[in-house]
Design goal:
The chain is α/β, with parallel strands linked by helices. It has two domains: 179 residues, Aspartate Aminotransferase, domain 2 (3-Layer(aba) Sandwich), CATH 3.40.640; 136 residues, Aspartate Aminotransferase, domain 1 (Alpha-Beta Complex). It is 41% helix and 14% strand. It has 15 helices and eleven strands. The strands form two sheets. A seven-stranded mixed β-sheet has the order 1-7-6-5-4-2-3, sandwiched between helices. α11 runs parallel beside α15. The protein is globular, with a radius of gyration of 22 Å. The structure holds pyridoxal-5'-phosphate. Pyridoxal-5'-phosphate binds next to α4. Pyridoxal-5'-phosphate (PLP) binds next to α4.
């Protein structure tokens, strides 16, 4: 089945027993535990000798349906959904490191909170991280060789400068060194790239973003290959970062239209990037569809033609914090929200949001200047988004 079909059908319409009607969409089941006619059946369910549910921290119908859908989208072996994208990253790292050396090699260009997760949560527990330019394969090979990490962590499209590493080549390096590769696929989505098909072991998403897509859900997802799934499930069942059934329902509903939304958002981003490239107020545009993008050959190799991303970042010429604030305050349509991937276009200022907790020096090292803003293209008419940007950039025009 192709992705658009899976998005609509996978996980839904489970049999409710012989002769019972089948709901066309998965119902929200709120029960925290499940009972059977006899305690012997409960015993067998706990022992996985018969299918069923015992306790909602382990399994529950709405979540299982969403897990099945997400497994299908990413072509993995199994999936687990949890309360946030950060919780998903934490459990993915723990799964990867469970029986490996407690050392991580991570892309230097990552979401700010992910950098903090490594430095402020994992490091105090003895897991050190070495950061490397994930787009420089010689440096990645050297870091893996030197550090002998248990896990390598990267984003398919980095936040916010939109660099794209060669997942398949990094995966080959990891495999040769016995390290697990974790890929945060939030920005790319399975429409652009399915990292497990390229050799990654664990794929992470903030469901909060494109997959749920409507700005009304917090959620995280880990999709696993076969080798890591039992460990992932066992960790999750033990410390229980599960998603609530209402969020699972909303996410499933959102995913049905995610490929359509993402196609439109990618098309809008392309038009927006082209318009910004012509605007004299703009110093530099970052977009994965730019033919002169530093990772253009990787993008052409790994992503479908023309559907290469829905994010556009840009530096406003000569702007500092004050000018960026003034520009953002002039926006009338684009929502100044600290997220991405929603149906509405969103503008974020990394220096005060996604990368706020990094020092100015750390941001500078990553190339995140005070003049940089990040736009998540929505599904509106591209002309309206461009008109809003144009009037906000040139208030007197
Ligand atoms: C690339 C990426 N990964 C993970 C996260 C964390 O997701 P959440 O906010 O759902 O915890 C974010 C949030 O912005 C993100 O942009």
């Amino acid at each position: 089945m192709k992705l658009h079909t899976k998005a609509v059908h996978a996980g839904d319409r489970k049999s409710q027993g012989p002769g019972r009607p089948i709901p066309v969409t998965t119902p929200i089941v709120t029960a925290s535990s499940f009972v059977y006619d006899t305690i012997e059946t409960t015993d067998k369910v706990f022992a996985h000798e018969v299918p069923g549910y015992a306790y909602a921290r382990y399994d529950s119908p709405t979540l299982n349906a969403l897990d099945e859908l997400c497994t299908a989208l990413e072509n993995g072996h199994g999936a687990l959904t949890c309360s946030t994208g950060m919780a998903a990253l934490e459990i993915a790292l723990k799964t990867a490191l469970l029986d490996r050396r407690k050392k991580v090699v991570a892309a230097s260009a990552l979401y700010g909170a992910t950098i903090n997760l490594l430095l402020k949560v994992f490091e105090p527990f003895g897991v050190e991280t070495t950061f490397v330019d994930i787009c420089d394969l010689d440096k990645v090979a050297a870091a893996i060789d030197e550090e002998k990490p248990g896990a390598v962590l990267m984003e398919t499209i980095s936040n916010p400068l939109l660099r794209v590493g060669a997942i398949d080549k990094v995966a080959a390096l990891c495999q040769a060194a016995g390290a697990a590769l974790i890929v945060d696929n939030t920005f790319a989505t399975p429409l652009l790239c399915r990292p497990i098909e390229l050799g990654a072991n664990l794929v992470v998403h903030s469901l909060t973003k494109y997959l749920a897509g409507h700005g009304d859900v917090m959620g995280g997802l880990i999709v696993s290959d076969q080798a890591h799934f039992d460990s992932l499930r066992s960790l999750s069942r033990t410390y229980g970062p599960v998603l609530g059934p209402f969020e699972a329902y909303l996410t499933m509903r959102g995913i049905k239209t995610f490929p359509l939304r993402m196609e439109r958002q990618c098309a809008n981003a392309r038009k927006i990037a082209a318009a910004l490239g012509q605007n004299p107020k703009i110093e530099r545009v970052y977009f994965t569809g730019d033919p002169s993008h530093p990772d253009a050959s990787t993008i052409q190799r790994l992503f479908p033609a023309d559907t290469v991303g829905a994010m556009v970042s840009f530096d406003i010429r000569g702007a500092g914090r004050e000018e960026v604030f003034a520009f953002m305050n002039r926006l009338r349509l684009i929502v100044k929200g600290t997220s991405l991937g929603d149906v509405h276009s969103l503008m974020l200022y990394p220096a005060i949001a996604s990368h706020r907790d990094l020092s100015p020096k750390q941001r500078e090292r990553l190339g995140i200047r005070d003049s940089l803003v990040r736009l998540s293209a929505g599904i509106e008419d591209a002309d309206d988004i461009i008109a809003d940007l144009t009037q906000a950039l040139s208030p007197s025009a």
